[in-house]
Amino acid sequence: MPINLGTKPQHGFDQPLGLLSDCHRRIENFLGMMIRVLERSQHGNKPLEPQEREALEAAIQYFDVAGPRHTQDEEESLFPRLRASNDPNAHAALARMQSLEEDHRHADTMHAEVKQLCRRWLETGPLPVADSHRLGQLLGELQHIYTRHLSLEDNELFPLAARVLNHQQLEEVGQEMARRRGLSMPGPQR
Q: When you count CB atoms within 10 A of the terminal residue's CB, does the N or C end of the chain come out lower?
C-alpha cells in the first residue's frame, strides 16, 4: 500500500482558511488510509505488510502531531476572532462553533483509543477479533463525524470567516498557525 500523504497544500499561511481546508483533505486521506489498511488485512486478522505498517505509522503520526495543531488553529486562533466579531452572522454561528469544539473532544478521545489499538497491532501482530471489531467501529465513527464536521467548516464556517474577518485578523491567524509549527512569518502588513 503506497503512502499518499495527499496533495501538496494549495495554500500557505498567508491564506489560513484555505490552509485549514487543505488540512481537512489530509485528515480524510489519513483516516481513509487507516480504514484501507484494516480492510486489506482482513480486519486486523493477518500480519501487516511492510507498506501497510508504514501507512499505519504515518497516519498515527499525523493524528498525533498535526491533528492537535489543526484543532488549536481553529479553537485558539479562528473561533475566538469569530466570537469577538460584531457581525450578526458570526453570532448566529456560535452554536455551530460549540458543536465543532465538542466534535474535537469526541474525536480526540476516539483517536487515543485508535492509537492504542494500532500500536498493539504494530507491536504484537494480528489483533484479537474484539479489538479489530472495535478499531473498525472507531474508524467508522470518526469517518462519520469528520464527514459532517469538515463539510460544515469548509462550506459554512470558513466562508463566513472570509466575509467577517478583516485582512489583518486573517493575517494574524496565519501567523499563529505558522508559530505552532515552529515557523515565523513577517508581521502584519499595515
A: C
Q: Return the sign of the alpha-carbon dihedral for residues 119, 122, 123, 129.
A: positive
Q: Which residues of 133-156 are buried (b: 16+ CB within 10 A; e: fewer)?
A: ebbbebbeebeebbeebbebbeee
8 part of a folded domain: no
Positive or negative: CA dihedral 76, 86, 169, 100: positive
C-alpha angle with apex 23: 20 to 26, nearest 5 degrees? 165
Spatial CA neighbour of 136 closest among 39, 62, 47, 69: 39
pTM of the model: 0.90
Residue 54 covered by a domain? yes
- Structural domains of the chain, count: 1
What's the length of the chain? 190
Q: Rounded CA gap, 179 and 139, in Å?
A: 31
Give the type of residue at 23.
Answer: C
Residue 130 lies in domain:
16-180
Report if residue 170 sits inside a domain: yes
